[in-house]
Fold these 4 entries.
Entry 1:
Amino acid sequence: MIVQFDAELWLWDARKLDSWTFVSLPADASQEIRELTEGPRRGFGAVRVRVTIGSSTWATSIFPDSKSGCYVLPVKKAVRRAEELHPGEVAEVSVEVL
């Protein structure tokens, strides 16, 4: 399953200088992924994925967010630098469930 969407980068904890930066997957895609990956999951409900943003592709995990009901994707600093992305900006994201 591959999901493509545009999403705004946001900080998990804005009080820290080097906070974790995420994008949220759309609600409908999150529901499809939840149905596709029913059964035992990795720690924190993580789902392994391959992500592409711009020319950067990497393997990581998405995590369920109990507040929004959507999965969230951490966007590592190396990718943000390579793609010149900052919190508040919108990125084109492709997520492939592995």
Entry 2:
Amino acid sequence: MLALFGSLAAVPASASEKLYLYTENFPPYNMSATGRAFEHNENSIDGICTEMVKAILQATDLDYVIKLRNWNYGYNRALSKANHGIFCTTYTEERAPLFKWVGPLAQNLWTVFAPPGSTFTMEKLEDAKGKTIGGYRNDVRSEYLLKRGYDVSVIDSDDLNPKRLVLGQIDLWIAERLAGPYLASQQDVEGLVPVFSFNDVDLYLAMSPDTPDEVIEELNEALEITKKDGIFDAIGTKYGL
């Protein structure tokens, strides 16, 4: 990945250039307001992180567009193109040098779900060894499990994993404690059983390393302004956090 990243790295950008920000359908953090898989403008994109990112941007003079795509698409563009970013992205030590970071914006509790009616129990993560776990490409949870030798069946988008779980195509699903049931309900899947939670992590806006430092500074300063103004707390309250 690092070799690929190095070969794709862009010429450093100007602070006056437009920002291109990507997100995915990951409700209630980021989601289409119309139920579509892709969105081309910010007015059609909702969610906790989306509203927080919009509030930050509106406190700056920066020009920007926000688009909703699948995670793998947006993640790779943020890796390789100056002034491109993706949210909400889990901050990890492995990812730290790949991006410049704005945040934290929210928290994320990783959770393993079993299908409705399951009696399967877990006391530790290792209890999932020998099970096929649903995930998706370039998602930090999937990468975490794969590196530790778990059997992870990854697809391009997380949307199909609740159905795969119900149909028995996977045994378990790794998702987020709030977002998992929300996403499942959008696919008419109810009653998923949360069997184990771990790794409470921070979520950020991750920007290409070729994004000028002054842009990152302006975004982080705007973040502090919106926090002091109570905007972040109001967004969290709106979504029941």
Entry 3:
Amino acid sequence: MVKSGVEVSGLRVVRGGQEVLRDLTFSVVPGEVTGLLGPSGCGKTTLMRAIVGVQRITAGAVTVFGEPAGAAALRPRIGYVTQAPSVYDDLTVAENLSFFASVLGVGQDRVDACVRVVDLAAERGKVASRLSGGQRSRVSLAVALLGEPALIVLDEPTVGLDPVLRRDLWETFHALADEGAAVFVSSHVMDEATRCDRLLLMREGRIIADDTPAGLLEKTGADDIETAFLDLVEQAAS
């Protein structure tokens, strides 16, 4: 049996009097790319914040590698990429990575390795403010990978990127999973579903499906994930 990297049980989050997450229970295992798909505003970012330990929860539990989410011992084991690039605009790619490497206590060899992973060797001397949106996203990913995290949480990392770059990033996510990391990535783009090993489909703060892409298509009889999602929404409403 594969040991879970993340265990979420009965998770509820209420914010501003509104229930944002509604009794979520699922796991994320090492060695897989688990996709969290759903429309904007359904609670994906709140869920990811709960997993990395920066979201106050109302009920339930979230554990990561056996520790409560947010525990100090987990900090070097988690890489978190938010929707907004986490880089300093007035520093170069190399300077950004060197700064965060010094905070984490890792060496230049790790900086060089992360630059190669995200394919930014040719841009390492460029100031971040002059990079494209896709390149800035890749710098953020490189920063998240500096500590060789066992769990990588990626909040809509491919939004606004061209198809070639999206493909390249998904190949990187799978390479990281193949090395043993648990990769948890969110998207509202349904055609990215087939790139995941496993899917969580989310709607209005609830998980309405948890299966492989092939399993979801088989269960619903749909030809594509978007149709399967719509079928599941209709079933949940009936």
Entry 4:
Amino acid sequence: MALMITDECINCDVCEPECPNGAISQGDEIYVIDPSKCTECVGHFDEPQCQQVCPVDCIPFNPEHPETKDDLMEKFLKLTADK
């Protein structure tokens, strides 16, 4: 399941540089996560790094994008194939 950033986001800028897939960017009002790039850090780390550094705990799993660990690993492999 991809992650999402809720409106509790305080725009502290700590999550964006932690994302190894470049899935986090500044949106109109708060940071946003591109679900097509979010692998919950599968393939990179044991836990989502953005969740680890978020001071207000506003990065839950996105119920609109359910994915298994296998799905996330497949996405990771596709995202890193050209690197």
